Amino acid sequence: MTDQHWPAALAEARLHVVSGKGGTGKTTLAAALALALAAGGRRTLLVEVEGRQGIAQVFDTPPLPYAEQRIAVAPDGGEVRGLSVDAEAALLEYLEMFYNLGLAGRSLRRMGAIEFATTLAPGLRDVLLTGKVKECVGRTVGDGRGGRGRVPLYDAVVLDAPPTGRVVKFLDVTKAMGTLARTGPIRTQSEGVVELLHSSRTAVHLVTQLEDLPVQETLDTVSEITEAGLPMGAVLVNRVRPSRLPATALAGAATGAGLGAGLRSGLEAAGLFLKDEEVDGLVSETVEHAERVQVEKAVRSGLDAAGLPQLELPELTEGVDLGGIYELAELLREQGVR
């Protein structure tokens, strides 16, 4: 776990988009990545866009409002802030920012017009969500004193994006923004979103597990990301479990042939005398373990063939709690995340 798998080129990225098949630990690893990037006195923003309040659950905090707030302290003085982006609130913010329609926009919301617009206009919802993320990435602070000028408010923004089945459409829908606004400030803002998402300042990371369906969906999404011209980052392989058997014994153990007699002999030599059903249970667990290791070896070869950087995170035996998020963040740091 000490090898450097995080390419140096990713240090240029300001926006880290994290996606993955449902159930692979996408939100958990997005949170761990935000913590890892914040270590050493840096500040990161962790953003969610699906309204599930997954960030609040991971960090054991109350539901996040449409406002940035500190949710965790990173090692060595850094901090992570969280934000749950709501499409309606984002549209109201656009109307006030670009057209000074703050009061009128709130009236439209009470009438249901905002919800109607975000539902009716194709792609508008994703445009609003990605636009808010872009605004967070580009925000600066400072007054120019001390020769520093204005500096980015956040060293990195981590986006807990939709799952792999929808993430490319969510990100690439910005190419069609011209159908929503052909001129004016929203068009200018939209073009800025397209530029950010297709630049080296963005990296799309995919979370997977060493199982057939998650890995195949990951590989399919890699192809879609490449075709869309979006910048691919790393593959985060989650819940990696070590093999308990030597490589030379795997094939034989997977068949179970003669395994019961061998186990009983070895146990009795150690002074352990088990019932038949207990030995049968151990045989079943051994066969299941050997089969799993063989499947993981096969699907890993498919990931390796994609030629992408891979970072491995172990299965946490005591489950994922706040302490586990910090543990995963430290493991990401050990693999080069900066």
How would you describe this structure to a colleague?
The protein is an alpha/beta fold and 338 residues long. It folds into two domains: 254 residues, P-loop containing nucleotide triphosphate hydrolases (Rossmann fold), CATH 3.40.50.300; 62 residues, no CATH class. Helix content is 49%, strand content 16%. The protein has 13 helices and ten strands. Helix 9 links the parallel strand 8 and strand 9. It is elongated and about 75 Å long. The chain starts with 14 loop residues before the first strand and ends with a helix.
Topology:
Elements: E1 15-20, H1 26-38, E2 43-48, H2 54-58, E3 69-73, E4 79-84, H3 87-99, H4 102-110, H5 113-120, H6 124-138, E5 140-141, E6 151-152, E7 156-160, H7 164-172, H8 185-197, E8 202-208, H9 212-227, E9 232-240, H10 247-255, H11 259-269, H12 276-305, E10 310-314, H13 322-334
Parallel strand pairs: 1-7, 1-8, 2-4, 2-7, 8-9, 9-10
Antiparallel strand pairs: 3-4, 5-6
Keywords: ATP-binding, Nucleotide-binding
Protein name: Arsenite efflux ATP-binding protein ArsA
GO molecular function, one term: ATP binding
Properties at a glance:
338 residues; alpha/beta; Rossmann fold; 13 helices; 49% helix; elongated; ATP binding; P-loop_NTPase; ArsA/GET3_ATPase-like
